[in-house]
Amino acid sequence: MIKKCLFPVAGYGTRFLPATKSMPKEMLPVVNKPLVQYGVEESLEAGLTEIGFVTGRGKRAIEDHFDVSYELEHQIAGTDKEAYLTSIREVMAQCTFSFTRQREMRGLGDAILNGRRLVGDEPFAVVLSDDLCVKDGEMDGVLKQMVGLFKQFRCSIVAIQEVPDDQIHKFGVIGGEQIKQGIYQVNHMVEKPKKEDAPSNLAIIGRYILTPDIFEILENTPPGKNGEIQLTDALLTQAKSGCVIGYKFKGKRFDCGSVDGFVDATSYVYKNLYSQK
């Protein structure tokens, strides 16, 4: 029912300068795989095989990563090093990839609007690669959980988690009524509020399922916080006229847009996932 997943990857990654001066932040490796590949693998697990990227200047490495490297593969063919390419070959075999550019950095809402030509008139998922989500035990990944929820509610869904008061200003924050355990009907949203202005401590993280009417709403959404077109503003409009669900997902999430979160993610993946292979 949902087959497409959009990756907005046009941002500069300034918190990781100078490393990201010439390398996309989405290509930063957590142990032996770039962040963006973890996101694509999560999409694939959820049955989303049509992957779209909204890129920008200096992001060609992402496109190259999901393509064949003939010279490299020729050099390591028949050696034990060939096994290192297994995971990316599996992703490439099962997914299709398309790309478009966001010419100006005008916010997440604008990036998603640019992805309309890749998505068309159907529901789709959005993954922000900065947020690395890993399974907690044997349960499904976050996107697979959300796809299951979409089959029930058939409306836009945002992944949420509780955050400390001193972190609230970094997120979009929802307010709403809990209709089931961990599931909220959203009636309010604020982008990066002060603690005293936040409707709750439930922050939106980088996993969404959006219905296609979001595009028309985004077209009519004026610039908001920082002069950017905010997805949160469009989702609030959608919530007032229809239904938006906040889902307190099961699993672990690391903010790999920050140095501390990136180091924590690398340590966790190495100790709990990589070293067990």
Task: Give the radius of gyration.
Answer: 18 Å
How much is the average pLDDT? 91
Low-pLDDT stretches: none
Percent helix, as a range, is 25-40%
What does this structure look like?
This protein starts with a strand and ends with a helix. The protein is an alpha/beta fold and 277 residues long. 43% of the residues are buried. The chain is globular, with a radius of gyration of 18 Å. A nine-stranded mixed beta sheet has the order 5-4-1-6-11-8-12-10-9, sandwiched between helices. A two-stranded antiparallel sheet has the order 2-3. Strands 7-13 form a two-stranded antiparallel ribbon. The mean pLDDT is 91. Helices cover 32% and strands 26% of the residues. It has ten helices and 13 strands.
Strand-helix topology:
Elements: E1 4-8, E2 29-30, E3 33-34, H1 35-45, E4 50-55, H2 60-65, H3 70-76, H4 86-94, E5 96-101, H5 108-114, H6 116-119, E6 124-127, E7 131-134, H7 142-153, E8 156-162, E9 172-180, E10 183-191, E11 202-210, H8 213-219, H9 231-241, E12 244-248, E13 252-255, H10 259-274
Parallel strand pairs: 1-4, 1-6, 4-5, 8-12
Antiparallel strand pairs: 2-3, 6-11, 7-13, 8-11, 9-10, 10-12
What is this entry, summarized?
By secondary structure, the chain is of the alpha/beta class.
